[in-house]
Amino acid sequence: MDTKYIRNFSIIAHIDHGKSTLADRMLELTGTISDRQKVDQLLDNMDLERERGITIKASAVTMNYRHQGKTYMLNLIDTPGHVDFHYEVSRALAACEGALLVVDASQGVEAQTVANAYLAVENNVELLSVINKVDLPAADPARVAEEINHVIGVRANECFKISAKSGLGVEELLEAIVTFLPSPEDKSDQPTAAMIFDSHCDQYRGVICYIRVFAGSLKVKQKVSFMRSGRTYIITELGKFKPEMAAVDELGTGEVGYVIANIRELADVTIGDTITDYAKPASEALPGYKTPMQMVFSDFYPGNNTDYSKLRDAFDKLALNDASFSSSPQNSPALGFGFRCGFLGLRHMEIVQERLERENNIEVVQTAPTVSYEVLTKDGSIKRIESPGQLPDPSHIEELREPFVRLEIITGTDTIGSIMKLTESRRCKLAKTDYLSTTRVMLEYKAPLAEIVYDFYNLLKGISRGYATMDYEFTGFQASDLVKIDILVNKVAVDALSLIVHRSKAEARGRKLIIKLRRAIPRHQFEIPLQVAIGGKIIARETIKGFRKDVTQKLYGGDVTRKMKLLKKQKEGKKRMKSVGNVQIPQEAFMTILDTNE
Q1: What pLDDT does residue 277 have?
Q2: Is 193-277 in CATH node 3.90.1150.10?
């Protein structure tokens, strides 16, 4: 197809602003799906996406649209809105020339809207601003258009006003996509270069690669090579998503579709790799993606009825489908063999855990998440550590650095005071204040990631009655006065319960933590001491009392020495039990570390 009749675009927006609903309406209006196929959130095909009402994976679909007697091919890539799936958005934008920036007419510009708009500008993507849900009673499109103008610089009269649910204005939006968004550059005479922007594994057909052709074309039975891995394959099937997979003989320049080439090994496909012709290869690979930086780390161990090999296979399968997630083998004296996993954020971690258990029918035990730190040692080398257990001896540490982020919070002016109080308690420093309108303000902070990654978002929503939104971007590591807290259970340090905190909060945090652990760990037959140590010095202790059996119950009279003898024997037995006793620590105990509240 001539590239001037192709439009590649994605829909970007804050969570819940109507991306998936708008995609549903477009599929209907272009006749891509029949009335029989109609279902809400059609492109969200994971059960988890439907249950939570959020998009997790970017998905592609091809639509044909008639405009002024010509048929246009519209390739839509639907993207997630949550801050943790920011990386999926960047991958989708790299495969597009245009994007629709959707904003809710009642809620206005949110933190994620701003982040996604900047991401589109960085990728040189043409933006069309869309104000959605204009038919709601609380809608105020005029105010929202002013906010868009203030933050993103799009004129108020250039915003498209639609209702994705009812279909109002969506037809005009489709015409605007054809009229205003650029077509792909015509490179059909150049050597083949197609970029893999996503992939998934089918147990019968092998690995299915989602691709966008940037130059040349791909044909069935063509011998191709993957430039990064250096492997060669013969294409067995090409196709497009309509939205079901539909086979075609050829994919030309500018087109989006899928490739199946008998790829059996999950590790053979790298997201961002370039597919080229084996006989006439492209001179250089497409830019691809920079590897995402994992910020939150957690250990996963096999739970009941799950063996290590089953867990390893589940991780291998997941790593193919989610390039922003990493795992490496780990061994813990308390929990055995498992994996150390890296995530982009807490929501990302939650989704991965749920996908692991559902898609592979396994159980996992997960330790409390930690952020990564940088250590400058006395010999001048810099080491990145992902868990408190990897921290070198304090005598070798010159400087300990923690990750800092640029935090943006958008909220109503009536809750500024309470939010500032919260951010102050989490060591955040205010960088600037920007009033979007008379009732809404954007606060920008420099914040330590460890303080905001766990429960900060929930507290923020509580304070602002659900109206505040936040987005953060990693800026770098910075030296801080940090210490490691060790938790000793029955006089043995448990690595999985250690944590790194700021010195000013260490003592109070340690005392609160063992009180919570005392409640979370069940009583045993013997007494269990819980201790908090900072740098080898014990600063607090709690005791879990053992169960006491009444060994004198069977006595009926006689000398008191008989009673004393039995009690002494019981005491000796408990002492021996204590020294060899293995303490059972439940999953809840590991998660108490996260709860920083009183």
Answers
A1: 93
A2: no
